[in-house]
Amino acid sequence: MTVLLTGGGGFLGAWIIRRLTARGVDVRVFDRREDRGIVRSIAGDAADRIEWRTGDVASGEDVMRAAEGCDFAIHLAAILTPACAQNPILGAQVNLIGTLNVFEAAKAQGMSGVAYASSAGVFGPDDGAIPYPTTHYGAFKLACEGSGRAYWLDAGISSVGFRPAIVYGPGRETGLTAGPSIACRAAVAGQAYTIGYSGAADMIYVEDVAAVFEAAATRPFEGAHAFSLVGEVADVSEIAAGIKRLVPGAAIDWSGPPLPLHPVIAPSPIGAVLGELPHTPLADGLARTVAFYRGDGIG
Predict the structure, then answer these.
(1) What is the CATH number of domain 2-293?
(2) Pairwise CA distance, residues 141 & 119, whole Å
(3) How far apart are CA 181 and CA 207, in angstroms?
């Protein structure tokens, strides 16, 4: 089995590569450039065994070439909330058109399905159950979910979109919600750090998210689904306190407005489709992240 992994050069892609290659699945990464650094830090020697193709996810031709011979697609390639706000047209080209390109490639290649990264950004700040995005990023992600349903009805392509809020853990070092992970790195290095938002949000450990994508690629399912990934709700003050317990004397604080999504995300019946999945408590996830930046490896 060969899985196409778009945006596979990032930290979530690295964790998915770690899990898929451990069970003997071949992975072909498709990204804008070849940089195996993050993958190597998370997945070790597997970084040198994966196939790598470069191109633009907004180009249907590039995606189609990368998908040749693949059996399933995991689609992560996207630009994040600030970039979509700064350039909504580019955001639509990458996040929406790019997703359509992946579905078109899946159709052409006869893939068994597509698993894609949606986001809790499909919810607005006032409701964590009914989608009502207030950002371009969230609007594009919600449109991708609708397109997934259309591809199932029109072409019989099974798909599942996953909606995490804050994904944290080893390797998460870019994006608006990377603050808790960067704070762990800074604490270990003896550096002060300010997490750039306030208030509460749902925190989910990166390996739990990688396990969900692994399950979608390796456990047969049918239909078009969109599932919220629920971790553990925590105020940023609790996160800072947790890091300070792990690294006494750490100079971690926070500043900025709350995130533009509701802190409490309604759970989805994901187990009915994909079976049992792991759940890492926040305290354990922070401890593993701190251990990684101390050089203790990944537990």
Answers:
(1) 3.40.50.720
(2) 7
(3) 13
Cβ neighbourhood burial of 224 (10 Å; 0-12, 13-18, 19+): buried
Helices (H), the chain: 11-22, 37-43, 60-67, 81-86, 88-91, 98-109, 136-155, 179-188, 206-218, 236-246, 271-274, 282-293
Give the C-alpha separation, 210 to 115, whole Å. Answer: 11
Domain extents in the chain: 2-293
φ, ψ of residue 140 to 5 degrees: the values are -65, -40
How far is 269 from 180, CA to CA, in rounded Å?
28
Q: Do 218 and 23 contact (CB within 8 A), yes or no?
A: yes
Q: What is the DSSP string of 27-67?
A: EEEEESS---HHHHHHHGGGGGTSEEEE--TT-HHHHHHHH
DSSP 185: H
Query: pTM of the full predicted structure?
Result: 0.96
Torsion of CA 233, 77, 18, 289, to 10 degrees: -40
Within 8 A by CB and 6+ apart from 37, the residues are: none
290, 246 contact by CB (below 8 A): yes
Say how many C-beta atoms besides its own lie within 10 A of residue 219's C-beta: 10
* pLDDT digit string (tens) for the chain, length 299 residues: 999 999 999 999 999 999 999 999 999 999 999 999 999 999 999 999 999 999 999 999 999 999 999 999 999 999 999 999 999 999 999 999 999 999 999 999 999 999 999 999 999 999 999 999 999 999 999 999 999 999 999 999 999 999 999 999 999 998 879 999 999 999 999 999 999 999 999 999 999 999 999 999 999 999 999 999 999 999 999 999 999 999 999 999 999 999 988 999 999 999 999 999 999 999 999 999 999 999 998 86
Residue where the block lists tokens 């926070």: 254
